[in-house]
Amino acid sequence: MTTQCPPAVLNDRLAKLFAPIATELATAESRLRSELQHREPFINELAQHSFRMSGKRLRPALLLLSASACGEVNEAHRTLAPVVEMVHTATLVHDDILDEAVVRRHADTVNARWDNQTSVLLGDYLFTHAFYLASSLDTPLGCRIIGRATNRVCEGELLQTASSGDFHLSRDSYLHIIDAKTAALCACACELGAQFADVDNKTVAAFEAYGTNLGIAFQIADDLLDIVGEEQAAGKSLGTDLTHCKMTLPLIELRDRLAPSERNELQTLCEQPTQENLVRIRDWLEDSGSLARARQTAIDYAGQAVEQIKDLCPSTGDNGTAQRHQAHQSLVELANFVINRSA
Amino acid sequence: MTTQCPPAVLNDRLAKLFAPIATELATAESRLRSELQHREPFINELAQHSFRMSGKRLRPALLLLSASACGEVNEAHRTLAPVVEMVHTATLVHDDILDEAVVRRHADTVNARWDNQTSVLLGDYLFTHAFYLASSLDTPLGCRIIGRATNRVCEGELLQTASSGDFHLSRDSYLHIIDAKTAALCACACELGAQFADVDNKTVAAFEAYGTNLGIAFQIADDLLDIVGEEQAAGKSLGTDLTHCKMTLPLIELRDRLAPSERNELQTLCEQPTQENLVRIRDWLEDSGSLARARQTAIDYAGQAVEQIKDLCPSTGDNGTAQRHQAHQSLVELANFVINRSA
Q1: How far apart are CA B281 and CA B233, in angstroms?
Q2: Closest to A145 (Cα-Cα) out of A187, A103, A113, A117
């Protein structure tokens, strides 16, 4: 296994946070690339394309940092790091189908059918390849943790679909959905890192809880970026959630503090997402402090993430312990990063 | 675990073939039903709906018959039988998206988006739940066999998509595609049945090879039914393959025996699938003996399936051996059934 392939898109801040596991992350990247090679040119082209889709490599980094903070990165981690990225990429590929469907309702493109077919199958190919790779370990534990997490991701996505356009979605339901659709895979990555570093169950649970809280903070920040982020930095069109009356935390915070008549007014604006109405909603979110409150919730979850592992920080000492200390420090700082990113 | 739930749609002939494992099949059905129960009503409704989608329960039956022919059905088999059916159902759910896409190009239905989103996620939910269930065994071997087979199913489907509308698809490529998209999961079911009955590797390989050959025969028969079957018996519209210039074995047999000028004529008919042209193609397939040749190929594969396991038939003797003998006999007869079914 070579380490010549640098992780795909790492900005400077992330590169610094991932420094304690930079070599391992490059190895994971290389493994990912080689796993997705296929003798059939069509499948190879698709798989290699998917490999370039995802960007930050957050999930394998969480796995490797957790492993490193608990002890040493070993062969099991090196197998599982590309697995979690492959699963994440599969969900992205299938998410694109969902988004594309919306576009297609308005303009049925010539190759819509081909793309749709291929995207469904490519996502399935990535899911099943990830499971196959995980099953190459000596124990079914990796498959079990990944199977449960990916199943929860699907549950979260299904619940989100079911609640689509529901102005009355409760705060608890929103948090339940993002816990499943986003946090479960972050938690899974951290749990795998700790579990296969052979630490006690309490430590494994602490790293899993770190991942859950970090994932929830990450998703709230993502939902905030949809409203207030800079389009170019985010690399996608903004205000998508508002346009589809998707109730994310800022809107929920606003709605729950309004008098009934104002609440009806907000609902009308949400259900008639003209450009003018979208601007009014954004101003309302800003002026009412709803954006700030949602942001505070993200900060609280990030704080909770750090809280879970703060007592597990090894002291600086010999080389091995220094390495663990640095990885631990990166996880702490990562919690801060995910709520302050611009993309 | 109760056994009160009878398998979904079994015609009399199949019920007779499945008789040696009837109780175990009912147990698998019950397990499938309970595994797909969910506390969230929306997910529960979808999962239960998918549970009613598939019909013959061929794959769990192959697993249980193989297990029974090799020894005794045990707890591992009882876990894996619903797993293979869940994987099969996931592929059916995603196949429906592919088919639906074609319909939608012509008539974009009101709830197209909802259905599309939900179908992608439901298929993913079933895939991941199946893997999670497989990972509950003590060994990763089940996950490994299932992961590899499902990955091959996806490969086959992707290759089929890539060759869609390719009049020049070779006979070998066609066989390679159906080996992957259909036979891999049948082979997987038989392999799991034998593997977890603790027989030697040679016997496991024989049952796997039986499943491969049976699966290829099954798919050729399915492709024949698309051309010559009775629509009501098949429960789906006929001639779909011809309409989409999908090269299945009868067409390939015909094409490969034509002189260049006739071949061009056939290609023109295929590329302009008017009702009149479809009738001309069907008559041509019939008159040229291409349907008969394709049918003979299915018979040959079914014969190969039986060949793989014929020396492994236990003699009738005490009760346990009699049970094994009956299961073995059912597998032999099943090879005949799949090429003579009308749906």
Answers
A1: 22
A2: A187
DSSP B103-152: HHHH---TTHHHHHHHHHHHHHHHHHHHHHHHTTSSSTHHHHHHHHHHHH
With CB atoms and an 8 Å threshold, state whether A102 touches B113.
yes
Question: Does residue A62 belong to any structural domain of this protein?
Answer: yes
At A219, list the tokens: 């998703």
User: pLDDT tens digits, residue range B287-343?
Assistant: 999 999 999 999 999 999 999 999 887 776 666 788 999 999 999 999 999 998 776
Give the C-alpha distances (Å, rounded to integers) separating B202 from B205, B207, B290, B312. 5, 9, 36, 11
Range of the domain at A37: 17-311+321-340
Looking at chain A, which residue has its C-alpha nearest residue B117? A98
Q: Is the ipTM of this complex over 0.85?
A: yes
Which residues in B lie closer than 8 A to residue A101 (C-beta atoms)?
Answer: 112-113, 116-117
Amino acid at B80: L
Q: What is the CA radius of gyration of chain B?
A: 21
Domain tally for chain B? 1
Q: How far is CA B38 from each of CA A157, B8, B41, rounded to the nearest angstrom?
A: 15, 20, 7
- Nearest Cα residue in chain A from B97: A117
**Chain B residues whose beta carbon lies within 8 Å of the beta carbon of residue A144:** 132, 135-136
B contacts of A125 (beta carbons < 8 Å): 151, 154-155, 158
Residue range A136-161, pLDDT digits in tens = 999 999 999 999 999 999 999 999 98
How far apart are the CA of A315 and the nearest CA of chain B, in angstroms? 37
Classify residue A11: in a domain, yes or no: no
pLDDT at B51: 77
Candidates A48, A127, A188, partner chain B, best to mutate (most B CBs within 10 A): A127
Distance CA B84, CA B141 (A): 14
B242: left (phi over 0), alpha (psi -120 to 50) or beta: alpha
Tell me the CB-side half-sphere exposure of residue B317, using CA atoms within 13 A: 6
Tens digit of each residue's pLDDT (9 = 90 or more) over A8-45: 456 888 999 999 999 999 999 999 999 999 999 888 88
In-domain check, residue B7:
no
Q: Are A77 and A194 in contact (CB under 8 A)?
A: no
Residue B144 has pLDDT above 80, yes or no: yes
User: What is the domain-level CATH number for residue A38?
Assistant: 1.10.600.10
B297 belongs to a structural domain: yes
Closest chain A C-alpha to B176 CA, distance in angstroms:
12
User: What one-letter code names the amino acid at B235?
Assistant: G
The structure tokens listed for A81 are: 């790091």
- What mean pLDDT comes out for the span A93-110? 53
Q: Verify whether the Cβ–Cβ distance A143 to B148 is below 8 Å.
A: no
Query: Average pLDDT, stretch A93-117?
Result: 54
DSSP code for A182: I
